[in-house]
C-alpha cells in the first residue's frame, strides 16, 4: 500500500487505523494512536516473546533495543551513545530529578504551563532532606515575541541564583506554545544552570537535532505523534552527566555502562521500543514533517480550528489535537455538541 497516495481524513482513518464505532477522536495528543500495521507487528513480536521467552530476553531484546536506539538517534539528530529509551516523558523527567546531585538550598525552575505530572515530580523532590525549592516563572498571553519568554525566565533566574536546573517545554501541553529553546538554553548556560527539556509533544511535530540543540537533558515521546505503541519515549543525556544519571530501577546491569543499565530492566515489555523503526517509516510514508505541517496549517488558517479543556488566565480553552485520520466532520460534530451545552451568563 502506497501510504503517500491515501488522502488524509476518512480514507486514512479507514485504511490505516481501527477505532471503536460511534466515537470521535480529536485528542490524539493525549495518548497517541497506533496504526493497524504497527499493531499487527506488535502482536507478532508478542508471540515471538511468548514462544521462546529465554531466547527472546537474552538474544532478541539486546539486538532490537540497539536497532531502535540507532533508528531513534538518526531521526532525532542524536549520537546513539547519548540516547536511552524510557516508557514516557514523565519517566524521563523522574529519572533526571531523582538522580540529580542536589545540595541543600538548590532550586528548580518551572513555568506556569509545566505539565502537571512534571510539577508533581518537582514538588516530590522538594520534600527530600536537601530542601529543594521549586520556582515558577509566569507566562501570560498574548505574547508579542519570543524574547518575552526568555526575559521572563532570565528575570526569575537572576532573582533566584540558587536555581540549578530549569525544566523547559519544547511545546507546552495545554497551549501548544513553542519555546525558543536555543536562546533559553544559551541564557541558562551563562548562569551555570542545567536544562532539562520536556519534549513530550515534539517528536513528529518539530524538527529536532539534539546534538545541535545540546541541552543537558531532553526527553520526548514516540507514542504521541510518531505512532508507536504506548509507552515509548527517549531520554537524551549529555555525556557529562551520564555517570550519575541512572535509571529509576536498578537491575542486573548495575554499573555496566549508561546504556546497558537502561536496556536491561528485567521482564519489562520492550516491544513498543522495538517498533520505533517501523513507526518512523510509517511517519515518513504518510508525508513526514511536511505532511503533518500542511494539515496543521490548513486546519488553523482555512478552517479556524485549533480535545482537552484547560483554564488559561481564568478562561476555558479547548485544545483540538489533529492527526492524519481526522476529517472536518469530526470537528463539526464536536461543535454541534458544544452548541447544545448549557451556558452560564
From TrEMBL:
InterPro entries: Aminotrans_V_dom (IPR000192), PyrdxlP-dep_Trfase (IPR015424), PyrdxlP-dep_Trfase_major (IPR015421). Signal peptide: none annotated. Residues 63-257 form the Aminotransferase class V domain. Gene3D superfamilies: Type I PLP-dependent aspartate aminotransferase-like (Major domain) (3.40.640.10). Keywords: Pyridoxal phosphate. This is L-cysteine desulfhydrase 1 isoform X2. It comes from Crassostrea virginica. The gene is LOC111131060.
Amino acid at each position: 500500500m502506497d501510504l503517500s497516495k491515501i488522502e488524509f481524513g476518512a480514507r486514512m482513518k479507514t485504511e490505516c487505523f481501527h477505532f471503536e464505532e460511534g466515537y470521535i477522536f480529536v485528542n490524539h495528543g493525549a495518548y497517541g494512536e497506533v496504526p493497524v500495521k504497527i499493531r499487527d507487528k506488535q502482536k507478532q513480536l508478542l508471540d515471538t516473546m511468548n514462544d521462546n521467552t529465554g531466547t527472546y530476553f537474552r538474544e532478541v531484546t539486546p539486538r532490537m533495543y540497539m536497532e531502535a536506539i540507532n533508528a531513534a538517534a538518526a531521526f532525532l539528530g542524536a549520537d546513539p551513545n547519548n540516547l536511552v529509551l524510557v516508557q514516557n516523558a514523565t519517566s524521563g523527567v523522574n529519572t533526571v530529578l531523582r538522580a540529580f546531585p542536589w545540595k541543600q538550598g538548590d532550586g528548580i525552575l518551572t513555568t506556569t504551563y509545566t505539565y502537571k505530572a512534571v510539577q508533581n515530580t518537582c514538588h516530590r523532590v522538594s520534600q527530600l532532606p536537601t530542601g529543594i525549592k521549586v520556582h515558577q516563572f509566569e507566562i501570560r498571553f498574548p505574547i508579542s515575541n519570543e524574547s518575552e519568554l526568555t526575559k521572563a525566565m532570565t528575570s526569575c533566574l537572576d532573582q533566584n541564583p540558587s536555581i540549578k536546573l530549569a525544566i523547559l517545554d519544547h511545546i507546552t501541553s495545554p497551549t501548544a506554545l513553542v519555546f525558543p529553546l536555543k536562546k533559553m538554553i544559551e541564557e541558562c548556560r551563562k548562569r551555570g544552570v542545567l536544562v532539562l527539556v520536556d519534549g513530550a509533544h515534539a517528536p513528529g511535530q518539530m524538527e529536532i537535532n539534539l546534538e545541535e540543540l545540546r541541552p543537558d537533558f531532553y526527553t520526548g515521546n514516540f507514542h504521541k505523534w510518531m505512532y508507536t505503541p504506548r509507552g515509548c519515549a527517549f531520554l537524551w543525556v549529555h555525556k557529562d552527566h551520564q555517570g550519575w544519571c541512572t535509571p529509576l530501577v536498578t537491575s542486573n546491569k548495575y554499573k555496566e555502562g549508561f546504556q546497558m543499565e537502561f536496556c536491561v530492566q528485567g521482564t519489562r515489555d520492550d516491544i513498543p521500543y522495538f517498533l520505533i523503526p517501523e513507526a518512523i517509516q510509517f511517519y515518513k510514508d504518510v508525508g513526514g514533517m511536511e505532511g503533518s505541517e500542511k494539515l496543521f496549517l490548513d486546519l488553523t488558517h482555512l478552517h479556524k480550528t485549533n480535545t482537552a479543556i484547560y483554564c488559561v488566565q481564568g478562561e476555558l480553552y479547548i485544545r483540538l489535537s489533529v492527526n492524519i485520520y481526522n476529517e472536518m466532520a469530526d470537528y463539526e460534530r464536536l461543535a454541534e455538541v458544544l452548541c447544545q451545552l448549557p451556558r452560564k451568563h
